[in-house]
Amino acid sequence: MDKLLPFxxxxxxxxAWGLLALITLLCVAAPVVSVATALAFVPGxxxxxxxxxxxxxAVIPLLIAPPIAIGALSILRLLTMTIDRLDNCVRYxxxxxxxxxxxxxxxxxxxxxxGGSFLMIDADHFKSVNDTYGHDVGDEALKCLAQVLRTAxxxxxxxGRLGGEEFGVFLPELRSCDAGCxxxxxxxxxxxxxxxxxxxxxxxxxxxxxxxxxxxITLEQTMKLADEALYHAKRTGRDRYHIAAxxxxxxxxxxxxxxxxxxxxxxxxxx
Length: 271
What we know:
single chain; alpha+beta; two-stranded antiparallel sheet; 8 helices; elongated
């Protein structure tokens, strides 16, 4: 059934007209062939009567099939466009056009087998940008940050918005030291691109936490390590990156449960 679904996805007018022609041809050919076969066994049938009946068998479906097919194809075209819009809403963040949080996590899980590193990225002093220049400029700042992530990172990188001014990046097959080099390039690119946003001298910078995934820990624990590294980068001056040290998975879980509430409070203080 899944293999048949692409056939019914009307993605262009050209494809719709092609289907219309095919449907009309089948609707005309079926009765014509059936009637011609039946008339072939009628003895002594005049040739004029044969072609007359055959023409009638062709004209009737030719008049009926196109309007019905056009209506059906229009509905399929509308359904295709609606499904594509819904799919985009699920896959992409509507403001920045990077991957949504849910879709980013799903894509990351599919590539965990080959390993990689996760980057937790946060815009520095973003609240003051909104408070000083307004949320419209803040939105432009987020778009600028997303554009930097898309252009400065390698094509295979998965880039998504986790929420607010936080973004996540997964670099497949990259060790933490190589991911740190990518993070350094991101900080440098953001310094350059974030100087002027929407005509305002904002000088937006980012802080980044880097954590390498390994099979001994879960994706969530890897993200937690990156989040702790991000907090360290914020606390030590911002506009920089910090690489999380690999730790025992049991220690990661225990530390997360103990420090969770404290970190949220501290993060609000240094954001």
